[in-house]
C-alpha cells in the first residue's frame, strides 16, 4: 500500500473514447447493481471493504505475546482476512502507559510475521468508556495509536493496515490520529459503541455521517439492543447510511439478541462483521467459520 489516501472513489467520469469491448453504460447490466458503479471503497492488502461479500474480522485478545501469536495462528485457519489486535486486552499486568506502549511495539513485528502478507491487521484500543478492558487518557491513547501508525521503516509496508479511533474521544486527539493515518496510508476505522442501549435511527445515521466528515474511511457503530425492534433500528440505520454511497461502514447490534445483524451485514450495507476464534471481544460474537458460511448462504 502506498502513502496515498486509501479510499477509492469510483465516480470519476471516463473521458476516454468509447470502446466496442466495453458494455454501453446506457444499457442496464443485470449482473452488476447500478449502485456498485458509484460506491467508494477502502482497500488494504488487496482486501476491498465496501464491495462484494462483507469481511469477517477476528479479534485477537491474548494477554501476552505467546497467547497473541497462538490466536493469530488459529485465526489463520479461517476465512477471516482481517484480524483485530485488541491492545486494551494485551499485557494487563502493565499499568504504566509507557511500559504498555513499549510492550505493544515490541510484539508487533512477531504478530505481523504470523499474519503473513495477505491478511490485514486492525489495531484497536477499546477504552473502558466504550466497553474496553482498561482506562486510558485520551492523550495517551493518541500517542499509542500514532506510534503504531508511524513506526514503519522507509520503503516498507506498514505493519498496521487499519487503526481504530473512538470518535467520541477528545476532538484534537481524534483529528491528530486521523491525519497521521492518512499521511501514512493507514485506513481509519472511526468507532462508536453504546454498551447500554440502541439510540434512535436518526441519531445512528448522524453518527455514521459525522464520523465520515471527521475523516474516518470506515465509520463504525456497535450498539446494544433491548428488544428485537432495536435490532431493526440498527439495520435500518445501516441501510440508510449505505444509500449515501459515501463509502464503507460497519454496523453491529451486539449480544445474543443482535446476532442476526452479524450475518445479515451484506443485505443491510455493512462492509464487515466481527466473529471469534476462541475467546471473543464483545457480546454475541459467533464463530468465524460459522459467520463466513452464513454470509455466503445469505448473499442477496
Q: N-to-C terminal Cα separation, in Å?
A: 31 Å
Number of strand elements: 12
Uncertain regions spanning at least 5 consecutive residues: 1-5, 8-37
Order of helices and strands: EEEEHEHEHEHEHEHEHEEH
Biggest β-sheet, characterized? 9 strands, parallel
Mean pLDDT value: 86
Q: Assembly type of the shown chains?
A: single chain
What order do the strands of the largest sheet run in, or round the barrel if closed?
A: 10-9-8-7-6-5-4-11-12
Morphology call:
globular
Helical percent range? Answer: 25-40%
Instruction: Indicate the proportion of strand residues.
Output: 15-25%
- Individual helix count: 8
Instruction: Supply Rg.
Output: 19 Å
Short recap of the structure:
By secondary structure, the chain is an alpha/beta fold.
Indicate the topology:
Layout: E1 7-8, E2 41-44, E3 47-49, E4 55-60, H1 65-75, E5 82-86, H2 97-115, E6 120-124, H3 138-150, E7 162-166, H4 171-183, E8 187-194, H5 201-214, E9 218-223, H6 228-242, E10 250-253, H7 259-263, E11 272-276, E12 286-287, H8 288-297
Parallel strand pairs: 4-5, 4-11, 5-6, 6-7, 7-8, 8-9, 9-10, 11-12
Antiparallel strand pairs: 1-2, 2-3
Helix pairs in contact: 1-2, 3-4, 5-6
Describe this structure in words.
The chain has a nine-stranded parallel beta sheet with strand order 10-9-8-7-6-5-4-11-12. The longest helix has 19 residues, at 97-115. The model is unreliable at 1-5 and 8-37 (pLDDT under 50). 33% of the residues lie in helices and 18% in strands. By secondary structure, the protein is α/β, with parallel strands linked by helices. It has helices spanning 65-75, 97-115, 138-150, 171-183, 201-214, 228-242, 259-263, 288-297, and strands at 7-8, 41-44, 47-49, 55-60, 82-86, 120-124, 162-166, 187-194, 218-223, 250-253, 272-276, 286-287.
